[in-house]
Amino acid sequence: MAIQRLRTETRYSEAVIHNGTVYLAGQLADDLTGDICQQTRETLASIDRLLAEAGSDRSRILSATIYLKDIAADYAGLNAEWDAWLVPGTAPARACVEANMYAPEVLVEISIVAALN
């Protein structure tokens, strides 16, 4: 089966599709001036758009890796947005860790693996 790459840049592709699975690169908010709730909402909206482009949706997520700049300060806000966004009964395998981000204003980054529709 061929490998399909979407929105390929020099160093990465935003999505890679292979063998019925879509792998998303880490997604960020468009506006990095907001708080954790705003950044999480924007990040989840980006994931929705990219999954749709790849032929999947949030109900098909298999795994999520979430990176937070400050887990003590932002875990509750992230989870409030995540819980409201997630389709009931479809919780994926998930890891959430604190990480140094590439820029100080980035509060959250989320990487997704999902099954195609």
UniProtKB/TrEMBL annotation:
Pfam families: Ribonuc_L-PSP. It is an enzyme of class 1 (oxidoreductase). InterPro entries: RutC-like_sf, YjgF/YER057c/UK114, YoaB-like. SUPFAM superfamilies: YjgF-like. Keywords: Oxidoreductase. It comes from the Bacteria. GO terms for molecular function: oxidoreductase activity. Gene3D superfamilies: RutC-like. Transmembrane segments: none annotated. Its EC number is 1.-.-.-. This is Aminoacrylate peracid reductase RutC. It comes from Zestomonas carbonaria. The lineage of its organism: Bacteria, Pseudomonadati, Pseudomonadota, Gammaproteobacteria, Pseudomonadales. The gene is rutC.
